[in-house]
Amino acid sequence: MRSTSHPDDARSLAGSASLPGGTSLAGSASLPGGSWMLGDLSVTRFGYGAMQLAGPWVMGPPADHDGALAVLREVVELGITHIDTSDAYGPYITNRLIREALHPYPESLHIVTKVGATRDQQGGWPPARKPDDLRRAVHENLENLGVEVLDLVNLRLGNAEGPQPGSLAEPFETLVDLQRQGLIRHLGVSTATAQQVAEAQTIAPIVCVQNMYNLAFRQDDELIDTLAEQGIAYVPYFPLGGFSPLQSAALSAVAARLATTPMSVALAWLLQRSPNILLIPGTSSVAHLRENVAGAGLSLSDEDLADLDKIGR
Question: Catalytic pick from 48, 89, 213, 237?
Answer without folding.
Answer: 89
